[in-house]
């Protein structure tokens, strides 16, 4: 086990206030923490067990009620080489949680009248191809633009013009608005649009329009060269143990698809903004948290950088996950209750989603996911998934079998899926847990308890019931 720490105050606060004010601040934290005191041991034990089971160097956990701190906890090491422990002010890379902030930068400029969400993106990117005429900023915000994912050399620097040209050369996956398909390309383009419209980097827009007003004093864009106090190191699995994060070029580590540093203290201040629907107008917040409209008249549960789902008592649950450069992150807010959980880890192999879920249900049993199997009204889809699963497990599946999967990505994904199935041992039946229509596609999730792990399977189907994408992963 790595060392454990919890509850330290922000060093900036300590330096700015006199001793009596510091003591009042510490007392306030203690009062705010009291509602979950009865759950503390259960949460502590669970997080410690997960760190050991998953072999994670360090984890930061925050629980907030409308921006008020209920729990700030650091466990393990922020930096293995120097033996530095995780603290509440430790800076973690946020990964794709940063997309909600990219969307915020876009909305700030939209409120200024500088970006129109309904016009073609070529209005802001005149060098973009004519094939993008039907793509709007709204499509990019909702991941419904249909853009493909290009091959990139992550050790090469690219200018904004280089990236637009690279994205333009990549074949489109579908017509704009036809379906939802998660797109880092789309959010990187949104950042380029902000850069051009504002005449400065989107990170500077965020500092002025979001981080500053919110009091997020350590939130910023990633930089390898700047001195960043309390920065955690990211780790990736290697053949003989953990390795330091892979190097990424400065330009690709500053794109708007997820290139931010944030601490638990920053997340607490952001949670207060979200709770009050502050900084932006009520109309802007409604747009950010509205499901994505699709061409067939249906919607998909994703807003502007926010995943959307339904929680206890029918309340909306909003959040996002992230993964980048040896870090994993997850944020989930039960919006009706005003309760937010944030879990940050400095290991590429960490399953922070399962940690967050375990913490949430120990905090409030209402947040436990019901173990009810869905009634399968489309058994033919499950049969098609079973066949795809068999081929993946036997190493017979190829990228050509799955038309919606990028060929290069599919090679890695299918191999990881095969390895997960092999490592899990004997499994019971895969039970259907989710059925989500998505325009001209349907996405389903299954779960199976196995001898050594619990597996989750995901597949997308076209209108004829053919599997067009599939993957399997475990919790261990």
TrEMBL record:
Pfam families: Beta-lactamase. InterPro entries: AmpC-like (IPR050491), Beta-lactam-related (IPR001466), Beta-lactam/transpept-like (IPR012338). PANTHER family: BETA-LACTAMASE-RELATED DOMAIN-CONTAINING PROTEIN (PTHR46825:SF9), D-ALANYL-D-ALANINE-CARBOXYPEPTIDASE/ENDOPEPTIDASE AMPH (PTHR46825). It comes from Paracoccus alcaliphilus. This is CubicO group peptidase, beta-lactamase class C family. Residues 44-350 form the Beta-lactamase-related domain.
């Amino acid at each position: 086990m790595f060392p454990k720490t919890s509850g330290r105050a922000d060093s900036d606060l300590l330096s700015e206030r006199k001793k009596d004010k510091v003591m009042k601040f510490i007392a306030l934290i203690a009062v705010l923490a009291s509602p979950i005191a009865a759950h503390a041991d259960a949460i502590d034990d669970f997080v410690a067990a997960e760190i050991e089971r998953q072999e994670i160097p360090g984890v930061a956990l925050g629980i907030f009620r409308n921006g008020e701190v209920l729990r700030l906890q650091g466990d393990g090491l922020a930096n293995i080489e120097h033996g530095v422990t995780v603290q509440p002010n430790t800076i973690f890379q946020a990964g794709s949680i940063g997309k909600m902030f990219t969307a915020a930068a876009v909305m700030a400029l939209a409120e200024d009248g500088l970006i129109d969400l309904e016009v073609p993106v070529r209005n802001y990117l005149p060098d973009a191809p004519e094939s993008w005429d039907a793509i709007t900023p709204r499509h990019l915000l909702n991941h419904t633009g249909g853009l493909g994912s290009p091959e990139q050399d992550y050790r090469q620097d690219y200018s904004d013009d280089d990236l637009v040209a690279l994205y333009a050369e990549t074949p489109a996956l579908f017509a704009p608005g036809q379906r939802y398909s998660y797109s880092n390309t789309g959010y990187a383009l949104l950042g380029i649009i902000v850069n051009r419209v504002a005449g400065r980097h989107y990170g500077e827009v965020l500092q002025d329009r979001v981080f500053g007003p919110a009091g997020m004093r350590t939130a910023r864009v990633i930089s390898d060269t700047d001195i960043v106090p309390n920065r955690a190191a990211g780790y990736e699995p290697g053949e003989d143990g953990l390795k330091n994060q892979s190097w990424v070029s400065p330009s690709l580590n500053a794109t708007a698809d997820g290139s931010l540093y944030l601490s638990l203290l920053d997340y607490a201040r952001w949670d207060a903004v979200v709770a009050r629907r502050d900084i932006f107008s009520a109309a802007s917040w409604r747009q950010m948290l509205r499901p994505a409209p699709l061409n067939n008249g249906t919607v998909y549960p994703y807003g502007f950088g926010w995943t959307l789902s339904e929680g206890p008592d029918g309340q909306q649950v909003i959040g996002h996950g992230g993964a980048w450069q040896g870090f994993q992150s997850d944020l989930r807010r039960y919006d009706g209750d005003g309760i937010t959980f944030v879990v940050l880890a400095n290991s590429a192999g960490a399953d922070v989603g399962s940690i967050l879920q375990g913490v949430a249900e120990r905090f409030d049993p209402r947040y436990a996911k019901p173990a009810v199997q869905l009634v399968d009204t489309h058994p033919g889809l499950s049969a098609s998934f079973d066949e795809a699963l068999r081929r993946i497990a036997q190493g017979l599946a190829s990228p050509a079998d799955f038309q919606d999967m990028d060929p290069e990505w599919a090679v890695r994904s299918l191999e990881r899926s095969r390895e997960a199935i092999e490592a899990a041992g004997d499994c019971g039946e895969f039970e259907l847990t989710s059925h989500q229509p998505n325009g001209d596609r349907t996405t389903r999730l299954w779960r199976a308890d196995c001898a050594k792990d619990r597996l989750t399977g995901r597949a997308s189907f076209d209108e004829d019931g053919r599997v067009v994408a599939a993957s399997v992963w475990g919790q261990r």
